[in-house]
Amino acid sequence: MCPKMRTVYVPSAVSSFFTFEGVGEDGSFIQPLQRVGAKGGGFKLVKGTHTSAELIESPEDEVLFDGRPIANSTTHAVLNIVRRRTGFKGHFRVTHWVEVPIGAGFGTSASASIGAAVAVLREIDFKGTFRLAGEIAHEADLVSHTGLGTVGAIYASAGTGGLIVEPGGPGVCRVEAFMEDFEKLSLIAVTFKSREKRPLLTSSDIIKRVNEVGTRTLERVMSNPSSVVMLRESRKFAVDAGLATPELDKVCSLMEEAGALASAHNMIGEAAHCIAWRDDARHVTKRLIESYPAARLTVSKMTESSFKVQETP
């Protein structure tokens, strides 16, 4: 009998605004890693990451994203942490297929890390739960400076869109979900290019400014919690925190003129996103394609799920 093919699906997560929590102004961690993270808000998307893992006879790991080998990725950090925490000595080939842009504020480092941790732990038949996989992914995302709080938010799996009000890793992070029906909404995003996060996540000036502006943003959204309010406040956040660009703000204006309910800049990436009623999404996407033909357009439904192990013959 042929062995079954096992893949792990994890949704992506667009971040609209954030704060640094448990991080010093020099970017160092001043709390235990399970207490380090972010507050903020965003959405989970149906389009995400599909990951498989297999043991290989090799002196080093192999990691592929969309068929291309990648060195020194967050997934490599996941594999090192798995070996440290389980005592396993072997090496792996991990393959990711990603349905959204990488390095542009879609939480792909978090979704890929979760997928890798789950796939590898199952490959070696390690007896553990999703929380262990989440803790490994959270640590890898932090030490690689590729993310802050997205792993914990995906693990929390509360609703489709909402706010992280308690930072940290799995079991610590707390999400307040918006009481809305997202079934008839689409998230539409335009991505121009990826953005290196390490300089931003370790800059004392940016950390201080983001925390000042982000704290006020969270307070305003919590006083009237909804996806539209969050996006409107997040767009202001990007400008006030110094993370906006004139071009991205122009994209946001075009999205809303074309029929989007509200829009914001991706955190962090050269990208912007909006939500629109499904019936209006076609007009919004048409305007974006006409105006930015070279950019990558992403259109996705949103989801409440956190992860799923899928086995096929």
Could you characterize the architecture of this molecule?
The protein is an alpha+beta fold and 313 residues long. The protein has two domains: 5-177 and 304-312, 2-Layer Sandwich (Ribosomal Protein S5, domain 2); 185-300, GHMP kinase, C-terminal domain (Alpha-Beta Plaits, 2-Layer Sandwich), CATH 3.30.70. Helix content is 36%, strand content 29%. It is built from nine helices and twelve strands. The protein has helices at residues 74-86, 108-123, 130-143, 150-156, 198-201, 204-223, 227-240, 246-257, 278-291, and strands spanning 5-21, 37-56, 62-65, 68-69, 91-98, 161-166, 174-177, 185-193, 262-265, 270-277, 296-300, 308-312. Strands 1, 2, 3, 4, 5, 6, 7 and 12 form an eight-stranded mixed beta sheet that branches. A hairpin with a 2-residue loop joins β3 and β4 (68-69). The longest helix has 20 residues, at 204-223.
